[in-house]
Fold:
Amino acid sequence: MNLWRCIAGLLAALGAAPLMAQPELRCTLELPAVTVVGQPLPARFSLHNPGPEGVALLPWGTPFEGSWLGASVEVIGPKGRLPYQGPQVKRAAPRAEHYLRLAPGQTVTVELDLSAVFALDRPGRYRVRPRIQAPDVLADTAADLPWPRAEPHEQRLCCPEVRFQRRAAPR
Structure:
């Protein structure tokens, strides 16, 4: 279902703007199926470039920055949606060194503690819906990096939803 929303969003964007080929990127999220309340919850995000060309991605506000600096996932727990409790930052214009470069066939993986930014303190079933919006993604040519260009090329990175269960800590 989430994949179809991503496809529909891409088709809508293509209809509303001039046809512009964006690099294809594949995103995945892995979580342990069962975890214990009070323990860290490692969330492993991977981004793969299956294309024939290198890709430059501005990772700001995404997990691929290597830390939580924005609400790039939505967490739904036993009592509903949980608020993001981590930092958010604003920045000046990016420079070329701020971009993450992915060679053809390359995968980059980061692991972040989901319990550091969401209150996962209740036993029950949870869902994590990635909402990853890269502020700028383009073919990796130094001539196009960084801004200012006509405009950045935002791209939604579609990662499937993941479910897990949180159990009470043993007494």
About this structure: The first helix runs from residue 2 to 16. Confidence is low (pLDDT under 50) at residues 1-5, 8-20. The two ends are 39 Å apart (CA to CA). The CA atoms of residues 67 and 76 lie 21 Å apart.
